[in-house]
Amino acid sequence: MDRVGIKKWSAWFRPLQLELQRDRWVVVAPSKFHADRVRADCEQLLRQLLGEIEVRP
């Protein structure tokens, strides 16, 4: 949370769900808009933390 701040955490990270499928994490967002925003703004950070990921609504 320190890397992104409380507002960004609450708005964009808290609603996400993680599912481990085979050899990568699937990041499940509550909507297509949310998934698109996470891809645009946060995907690089998530890849640094989790490795190979897929973001989907």
Radius of gyration: 11 Å
The end-to-end span amounts to 22 Å
Order of helices and strands: HEEHE
**Overall mean pLDDT:** 91
Widest sheet, order of strands: 1-2-3
Strand content: 15-25%
Characterize the biggest β-sheet: 3 strands, mixed
User: What structural class do helix, strand and pairing data support?
Assistant: alpha+beta
Shape: globular
Q: How many helices in DSSP terms?
A: 2
Query: What's the helical proportion of residues?
Result: 40-55%
Count of distinct strands: 3
Pick out the low-confidence regions.
Answer: none
How do you describe this structure in short?
By secondary structure, this protein is α+β, with helices and mostly antiparallel strands. It has helices at 6-13, 32-50, and strands at residues 17-21, 24-28, 53-56.
Task: Give the key terms.
57 residues, three-stranded mixed sheet, alpha+beta, 47% helix, globular, single chain
Provide a descriptive summary of the structure in words:
The protein has 57 residues and is α+β, with helices and mostly antiparallel strands. The protein is built from two helices and three strands, in the order αββαβ. The protein has helices at 6-13, 32-50; strands spanning 17-21, 24-28, 53-56. The chain has a three-stranded mixed beta sheet. The longest helix is centred in the C-terminal third of the chain and has 19 residues, at 32-50. It is globular, with a radius of gyration of 11 Å. The mean pLDDT is 91.
Spell out the blueprint of helices and strands.
Elements: H1 6-13, E1 17-21, E2 24-28, H2 32-50, E3 53-56
